[in-house]
């Protein structure tokens, strides 16, 4: 049983392991990573808008600022509740 012809391609034709193919794979991976980050920002922005009752347009910077504000507020609420609980 013989391997298919493409498995025996001469080195000049085979792109596997070449800088061209490696950079193409890196570009694809980078695009996926950027898409995933942007999707996460959209979700975080939705959550912040919902909790802060804000309809303002959001940049990535404002989303992060709102998230910090929301987290700080939630921390204060939790600490306040812990101080009220009987021991």
TrEMBL record:
GO molecular function ontology, one term from the record: RNA polymerase II cis-regulatory region sequence-specific DNA binding
Gene3D superfamilies: Helix-loop-helix DNA-binding domain
Residue ranges annotated for the BHLH domain, each copy included: 21-74
Protein name: BHLH domain-containing protein
GO cellular component, one term: chromatin
Keywords: DNA-binding, Nucleus, Transcription, Transcription regulation
Any Pfam family hit: HLH
Transcription regulation found in the keyword field: yes
Subcellular location(s) per record: Nucleus
Matching SUPFAM superfamilies: HLH, helix-loop-helix DNA-binding domain (SSF47459)
């Amino acid at each position: 049983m013989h391997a298919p012809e493409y498995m025996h391609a001469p080195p000049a034709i085979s792109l596997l392991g070449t800088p061209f193919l490696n950079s193409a794979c890196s570009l694809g991976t980078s695009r996926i990573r950027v898409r995933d980050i942007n999707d996460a920002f959209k979700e975080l922005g939705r959550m912040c808008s919902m909790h802060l009752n804000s309809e303002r347009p959001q940049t990535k910077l404002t989303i992060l600022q709102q998230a910090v504000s929301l987290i700080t507020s939630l921390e204060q609420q939790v600490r306040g509740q812990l101080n009220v609980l009987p021991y």
